[in-house]
Amino acid sequence: MPGEEVAAPLSTVYRDYLRCLNERRWSELGTFVADRLSYNGKQFTLADYRALLEADTTATPDLQFNPEIIVADDEFVACRLSFRATPRHTFLGIEPTGTQVSFAEHVFYRFEGQRIVEVWSLIDKEAVREQMLRES
Hints:
Layout: H1 10-22, E1 33-39, E2 42-45, H2 46-59, E3 66-72, E4 76-85, E5 101-112, E6 115-123, H3 125-135
Parallel strand pairs: 1-6
Antiparallel strand pairs: 1-2, 3-4, 4-5, 5-6
């Protein structure tokens, strides 16, 4: 109908979310993430989720969220993200060695009203650890 707002496809919303993360526009995170969400089965507030993301990007200032594969429907987004970063502080429970690491994250999101309400994330922490120890 004329004048009726059409929702953007979730793949577009998700790419905008990644841009927000990559540009560290933390004050805009609530545009993409609900006030309460589930992260790997644990209950988080938006502030908790923001703190998690800020901690990761503080530990690895050059961290960029690069989507390799995005699959989306009207409720879910699945993505393989690739990263290449140099941890400067403890990252994923691993002490930094000054080594640049490459790793992937496989992550699934459930959206309600175009905002993230559930996140399931899997990162191969052992691969990061092995790269850091090999180069130290």
